[in-house]
Write a structure and sequence with these properties.
Elements lengths: L11 H17 L4 H22 L5 H4 L4 H13 L4 H22 L4 H4 L16 H14 L3 H17 L3 H5 L11 E5 L5 E5 L2 H13 L21 H15 L7 H14 L4 H8 L4 H4 L1 H17 L6
Antiparallel strand pairs: 1-2
């Protein structure tokens, strides 16, 4: 949580209301744990600012009287504190969601908060890897590990990310009882959304190669992917493996574990995959999220055109 978010500067009533709203988001809206953490930090930061801005803790009655001027002051303070447009937009979205709920519960008009305009920003496009780069990364992590079983583990994890489009958290959530991997996996993704993902023979084989060398006993309820000392493998360790490999290969910093998932989607689209089917495979709640990959494809085509066509006006 940000240093600017100080729960001690928030009135007990506002603190209780925030906790109730967060519980509502978690129980009824199936919000992911990371989303709840972000909501708590963003709204607490907002309420802390209002206490300092007004010179007194803001009870529910005072919060109902927030003005457009107050909202502008908060957004300006957030920007001056180093937050970019994307971050400010995210924080404002959390505050608006909290206020919609609070206004309905307390019976006041939240117009001043809801009318606050989100700053414009350009959405970042996914940055997938070219097919040869993805293959090179997997080959590289196999050669850089100290122990053979660790090498096979790293290969298996990255193969699942690229071959099945899993999030790193989803791959690391697999249990020993999930192996040997079936032809398809039932994955519980963000917000408790469940999807079925086909498992390529190459991914199944990579997991089996890892398990054949893993020195730790396979236990049905223990993590499938183990760290050196036998505990569950962490996302940071996988990110470091990718960082070491991309440095050796001269790849950009965008070559992260999540980029392997982006690559899965982009390579399927390149091969003529249906956008709706890719949406289901990725577990995106909205098709608009998946459509970002069509923008990637268009951007790449335009780059080729601008670099190669004699009429491109270079």
């Amino acid at each position: 949580m940000s240093e600017k978010a100080n729960p001690l500067l928030i009135s007990p009533a506002a603190r209780d209301a925030l906790q109730t709203w967060l519980e509502h988001q978690s129980a009824l809206k199936d919000a992911a744990e990371n989303t709840i953490i972000a909501y708590r930090g963003d709204v607490t930061e907002f309420l802390t600012f209002m206490t300092l801005h007004k010179g007194d803790t803001q009870g529910l009655g005072a919060l109902a009287k927030i003005t457009i001027s107050d909202m502008r002051a908060w957004m300006a303070s957030t920007r001056s504190g180093g937050a970019g447009s994307r971050s400010v937009a995210r924080k404002l979205s959390a505050v608006k969601a909290f206020y919609r709920w609070l206004a309905e519960r307390e019976g006041f008009e939240p117009t001043a908060v809801l009318l606050a305009r989100s700053p414009k920003f350009t959405k970042k496009l996914p940055r997938p890897l070219a097919e040869d780069a993805a293959r090179a990364l997997i080959d590289c992590v196999e050669t850089q590990a100290r122990a053979p079983w660790v090498a096979e583990r790293d290969v298996a994890v990255l193969t699942l990310l690229w071959g099945c489009g899993l999030r790193i958290s989803e791959a690391l959530a697999l249990k020993g009882g999930d192996a040997p991997l079936p032809a398809s996996l039932r994955i519980l993704g963000k917000g408790g959304k469940e999807r079925v993902v086909p498992v390529l023979p190459a991914a199944r084989a990579a997991v089996e190669d890892y398990l054949a060398l893993c020195p730790h006993p396979r236990e049905a309820q223990a993590p499938l992917f183990r760290a050196i000392r036998g505990g569950g493998l962490g996302a940071r360790a996988v990110a470091q493996v990718m960082a070491d490999a991309r440095m050796q290969l001269g790849l950009p910093a965008s070559a992260t574990p999540h980029a392997m998932r982006h690559s899965f989607a982009t390579h399927l689209l390149d091969a003529g995959g249906d956008l709706r089917a890719i949406q289901e495979l990725l577990g995106h709640a909205s098709l608009s999220t998946t459509q970002a990959y069509t923008a990637v494809d268009t951007a790449r085509l335009m780059e080729v055109y601008n670099n190669a066509h004699p009429k491109a006006g270079r």
